[in-house]
Design a protein that fits this description.
This protein is an alpha/beta fold. Helices cover about 25% and strands about 15% of the residues. The protein contains 11 helices and 16 strands. It has helices at about 70-80, 110-125, 190-205, 220-225, 240, 245-255, 280-290, 320-330, 345-350, 360-365, 370-375, and strands at about 10-15, 20, 40-45, 45-50, 55, 85-90, 130-135, 150, 160-165, 170-175, 180, 210-215, 260-265, 300, 335-340, 355-360. It starts with 9 loop residues before the first strand and ends in a 28-residue tail after the last helix.
Amino acid sequence: MITEHKNTEIIHNKAAQAIFYDFPSPLTLKERPMPHSLFDPVQLGDLPLRNRIAMAPLTRNRARGNVPNALTATYYGQRASAGLIISEGAPISQQGQGYADVPGLYQPEQLAGWQGVTEAVHAQGGTIFAQLWHVGRVSHTSLQPAGGAPVAPSALTAEAKTYLVDAATGAGSFAATSAPRALLAQELPGIVADFAQAARHARQCGFDGVEIHGANGYLLDQFLKDGSNQRDDAWGGSIENRVRLVCEVVQAVTAAIGAGRVGLRISPVSPANGIHDSAPQPLFEHLLRCLAPLGLAYIHVIEGATGGPRSLPEQPFDYAALKAAYRSAGGQGLWMVNNGYTREMALQAVASGYADMVAWGKDFIANPDLVERLRRDAPLNPGRRELYYGGGAEGYTDYPRLAD
């Protein structure tokens, strides 16, 4: 079974001069519904979307003092043609913060700033979810309450860097993460409650829903994977124990705002932030079977290494089997895929039924009108990587549109 683009069979239709990617599908031809287009509307939980293109979360480190501002609102408003915008990660608490100048969801001034953002997106007819974020061990003591150690399932330092800003000069730079402490079991219900409260805050300031960040080596992913979770209590060891925190967070968030406004992001094999698991296939199939009855709006899957290769020969993964496990357990939410999708891949992924939506990240940085460019098969602006993190309007809100 073909599960990665690198190994995907390409079939050239000489008459149509088109390229098709043979994405795996568990459905027979007779069972398949009529094919959809990437540009067709779709129902996402409680919400109608105007197309099947999502803007993935993108940390930009532009929120001075961790508060969204007018420039943030302009940035998101420019990209509101996406069927769904998923905001940059918003820490659910100060403990959950891992980078400088990222906009949180736990202080009144942050909520007021986010309200300006959601109003800008809605004024353009867009839909926007907040990504709920706790970084766990991917942090630095200078960002933590009272300069304390970051927290993690186990006291294992992340092989990662964080972004800090010098208070005296305002200059940003990357630094190694600090050594974490292991969370006490009695602290975990408080973290679950922080996720639920952040979801209520998101709705309060106008977000249409939330995405729970369970990927990329952050706290929930750290609990899932045995490379970072070496606990011997009810929150570690077996797969059943390691999925417990994610399941409790999802249950609390759906109880707070309704499952039809909640998505979950996962990255089964991505090594981002020094994360790994010895057997990801059974782990993530078990997780999604447990979550299927909750009725989530979508599952957002990063295929391969985040921002890197889609195929990891040292750790192959069957994404079609993961989706089949979710569907067989009653999961009806949309299946959103992410990582390295070209226009042609995305068109075929949706047309074949392999995916319901496709998310793009960095292409949305440089192309505020990415949806229109994809629709027309127009050239894309190149991104300016040196301006991705920190700074002001340059490399943030000044990329040209096709109309320009």
